[in-house]
């Protein structure tokens, strides 16, 4: 592509490339506006450039100059067009494109009578405005709607796995991916991940080696900053759909890495997934529990995490919503999103939420003797990096902790359970994309 764009330069290939880079026709028009010129060498409006891009995306070569409506047209004609639209109750924002305008005006004579009954000839001005337009909805939505993730196929080559020995059941527990993106202020087409691809890659390698009997997610898998109650930053704009697509891809990768012939994966939601439900109930209650036509009531509603991330297709079971969701690995070990008070469970607890890696054991005296329980906080797989854009108000790539990342650590847990329901929990630390486990070094 050249440095200067004219209407005829926006071919199908160019339009498709611009839409792929910038997401929408209006974003692409704003991005290339300063490089666009009319046939006469002037600069068109952003609206005109958007029309070029939309027509190019439809495979239509622009032969006329639609921007003439916006620049060379006389003010009187523009006012007449605006008046005609107002009389028809058509808002300008609803117009997708205008392909033809005809304004005819002239004078004719009218005959009336004065109070004395004498004829009076009056010169009257007549106007006729004809406009051919297409509405915006004919071009599709102005921005991408949130929808289920695009299906992906993950193929992992068969490899030898370190299956647990002596009949031990192996469960891998993962927490706080906070999958999401920040849209760069410097380059809106570029997005910075809030999850950490390196830490996730390391966890994937270990899961693939272990071939566990079960995977468990303990919440905050998605971040969903656009639906947060916190201050909305420009970087959050239109990042929900990319996060859903990326989240589904990550889930599919872990399902493939864990291998076949195992217990179904369990998924607990966290306070970040709760943002989706709260956002809908507060702002679009009528959309809550909507499903496609003829689907059974047992199917997941469209705007729910299991539907958007295609749990049914992946074979993932949704355990429950925050704050009440919990999954018992065995009668002595429960998994939940946030760590409760020590007295909440007569059992050991594995939790996420804090992004800390901690292990605290406490003992209670009972008539049967002392009972020891342990709280395991297993860290996170979200980014711990600073945000480099100097114009941004965000200090870190994880907006839920804007000022600094305090005591956060990356990691996950591997649980071994024997036939007597005794268990052992390994807390796997990941540091700068590197982990050591079972005498092996893993790196992204």
What does this 3D model show about the protein?
With 444 residues, the chain is of the alpha/beta class. It folds into three domains: 63 residues, no CATH class; 65 residues, no CATH class; 275 residues, 4-Layer Sandwich (Purple Acid Phosphatase, chain A, domain 2), CATH 3.60.21. It is 22% helix and 27% strand. It contains nine helices and 17 strands. The strands form five sheets. A six-stranded mixed β-sheet has the order 8-7-6-3-14-15. β12 and β13 form a beta hairpin. α1 crosses α2 and α1 packs across α3. The relative contact order is 0.11. About 2% of the residues have low confidence.
Distance between the termini: 36 Å
Low-confidence stretches: 63-73
Strand content: 25-35%
* SSE sequence, one letter per element: HHHHEEEEEHEHEHHHEEEEEEEEEE
- State the share of residues found in helices, binned by percent: 10-25%
Largest sheet: 6 strands, mixed
Write the layout of secondary structure elements.
Blueprint: H1 12-22, H2 25-32, H3 46-57, H4 75-87, E1 95-113, E2 119-135, E3 169-174, E4 181-183, E5 191-193, H5 197-210, E6 214-218, H6 240-258, E7 265-268, H7 271-283, H8 305-308, H9 311-314, E8 316-320, E9 326-330, E10 333-336, E11 348-351, E12 357-366, E13 369-378, E14 410-417, E15 423-430, E16 434-437, E17 440-443
Parallel strand pairs: 3-6, 6-7, 7-8, 10-11, 11-13
Antiparallel strand pairs: 1-2, 3-14, 4-5, 9-10, 12-13, 14-15, 16-17
């Amino acid at each position: 592509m050249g440095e200067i764009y004219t209407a005829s330069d926006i071919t199908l290939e160019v339009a498709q490339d611009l839409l792929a880079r910038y997401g929408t026709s209006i974003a692409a028009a704003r991005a290339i506006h300063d490089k666009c010129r009319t046939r006469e060498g002037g600069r068109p409006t952003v609206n005109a450039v958007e029309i070029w891009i939309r027509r190019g995306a439809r495979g239509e070569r622009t032969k006329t100059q639609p921007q003439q409506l916006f620049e060379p047209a006389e003010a009187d004609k523009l006012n007449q067009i605006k008046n005609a639209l107002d009389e028809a109750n058509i808002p300008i924002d609803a117009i997708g494109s205008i392909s033809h305008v005809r304004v005819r005006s002239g004078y004719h004579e009218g005959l009336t009578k004065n109070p004395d009954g004498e004829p009076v000839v009056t010169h009257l001005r007549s106007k006729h405005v004809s406009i051919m337009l297409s509405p915006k909805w004919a071009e599709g939505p102005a921005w991408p709607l949130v929808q289920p993730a695009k299906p992906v196929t993950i193929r992992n080559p068969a490899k030898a796995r370190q299956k647990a020995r002596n009949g031990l059941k192996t469960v891998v527990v993962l927490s706080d991916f906070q999958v999401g993106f920040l849209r760069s202020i410097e380059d809106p087409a570029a997005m910075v991940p809030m999850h950490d691809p390196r830490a996730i890659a390391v966890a994937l390698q270990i899961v693939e080696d272990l071939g566990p009997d079960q995977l468990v997610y303990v919440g905050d898998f998605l971040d969903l900053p656009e639906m947060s109650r916190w201050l909305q930053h420009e970087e959050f704009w239109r990042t929900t759909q990319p996060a859903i697509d990326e989240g589904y891809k990550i889930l599919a990768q872990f399902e493939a890495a864990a291998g076949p012939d195992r217990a179904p994966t369990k998924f607990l939601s966290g306070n970040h997934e709760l943002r989706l439900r709260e956002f809908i109930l507060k702002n679009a209650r009528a959309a809550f529990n909507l499903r496609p036509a003829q689907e059974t009531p047992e199917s997941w509603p469209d705007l729910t995490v299991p539907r958007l991330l295609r749990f049914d297709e992946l074979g993932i079971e949704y355990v429950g919503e925050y704050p009440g969701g919990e999954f018992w690995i065995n009668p002595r070990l429960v998994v939940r999103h946030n760590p409760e008070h020590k007295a909440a469970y007569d059992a050991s607890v594995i939790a996420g939420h804090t992004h800390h890696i901690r292990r605290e054991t406490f003992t209670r005296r009972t008539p049967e003797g002392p009972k020891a329980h342990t709280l395991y906080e297993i860290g996170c797989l979200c980014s711990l990096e600073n945000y480099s854009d100097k114009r941004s108000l965000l200090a870190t790539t994880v907006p839920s902790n804007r000022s600094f990342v305090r005591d956060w650590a990356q990691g996950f847990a591997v649980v071994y359970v024997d036939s007597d329901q005794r268990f052992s929990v390994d807390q796997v630390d990941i540091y700068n994309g590197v982990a050591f486990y079972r005498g092996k070094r893993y790196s992204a």
